[in-house]
Amino acid sequence: MSKTVSKWRGNEWAVLLTLGLGFFLTLLDLTIVNIAIPDMSRALHASLAEIGWVINAYVIVLAVLMITGGRLGDLRGKRGLFITGVAVFTLASLTCGLSQTAGEVITARAFQGLGAALLMPQTMSVIIATFPAERRGMALGVWGGIAGLATIAGPTIGGLLVSGLGWRWIFFVNLPVGLLAIVLAVLVLPEVKSDARKQRLDVPGVLLASAALVAITFGLVEGQQYAWGKVWSFVSIPLIIAVGVVLLAAFLLLQARRQGADPLLSFGLFADRSFALMSAANMLVAVGLIGMALPMTIYLQSALGFSPLKAGLTMAPASLMAGIVAPFAGRLADKGGRYLVASGFTLYAGGLAVIAVLAGPSSNWYDLLPGFLLAGLGTGCTMSPMQTIATRNVPPRLAGGASGVLNTIRQTGSALGSAIVLAVLQSQLAGGHGYVSALRAAIAVPVVALLIGAALALALRSSKSSKSGNSDKPVSAEEANAGESVDQLSDR
Predict the structure, then answer these.
(1) Whole-model pTM?
(2) CATH homologous superfamily of domain 2-201+264-484?
(3) Which of 29, 78, 81, 364 has the fewest Cβ atoms nearer than 10 Å?
């Protein structure tokens, strides 16, 4: 048994499978809940505001703690933090499924967000540490494909579960997958260690960053609920967001003073043009993902009268196409990727535009198929290469922090996209427009965001000028000692 464990521990593809299982769960739960909203509301006798918090509690906690989770992985070890995160997420999923009130579900969803924030940043950083440069693009391609697949597949899987078994199974389905991920993590994940130098967690930075992100994400996700006005007494949504921006500025000032003393956020990451541009692109692609999922879910069920199952299956071709294309796109990104990512953003925007044109008050599922296939192709050509390009020059010792930053930016983009798209939808419907007109107006938001993303991709340097970074060549023994190393654990 010990020899079997030793054989598989550190195996690149076994590691990728294990990380992929955990990563898939966390992203699936961003969108799988949406399609169960009507059933949950009836079963729990919950108001629309309470059901909104079932979604938002997860998004806010995940976005707020992502950078901290990445940094903790750098300091405490990524293997243990990944296992802890999956365990917390799985137990919280069980609690969600057993909950009898909306308040219980909301609390459990917050703990799901905590588990996801602990495990998600470790996935990318372990991939960077495990895979050599010549195979890293393919690995990050699979990782990015999982991201696109899970986010788009949420309504499809949710529709199947809600229609066949009931809304509680959108949470119970996480249990076998979570337990499998824990077992595999114990058996195959290597320990990715930080350097020997004693490092400390930047506690003031954690508190400032968390407070800032809570205020900003709360303002974005709850703004529509309060009509972008007063929340309580003199406290308003604009004031809450403004306080968040001030706290974020204070956090950045603190980090500027701590750059030589284990900062929570290393500014050196953004000195790399590829990382900076792809960080912004991560936010824009999240706007695209949410901007498609939210209005389409409402349109398919409310305007066309589709069941949750039929609505989910109608959107399934996009996730299937993304999953097929992503690994190949990730491999192509090793050779550059600028035009690949720009094309992906453009195809994605084009797919949404086709859906908007073809959508009508009595459309059939096959009428929308060309748009979903095109959007899925664009997603597959975008998610994977973005991560490969963003992390190409990231030193291994900063991989956890870089992963935390990228994931935080993406979740903030999800909150921003959700807020804007819902505001447009509500404005259109309140103005007497039908679901088709509301859909077309809402989809214009992600289309514009994705086209901006294409422009950012074109601003990347050519592959020749980007191959000077740490990650494009194997890490030498000296560099490994200065940064992180993968400890292939011996038989015990």
Answers:
(1) 0.72
(2) MFS general substrate transporter like domains (1.20.1250.20)
(3) 364
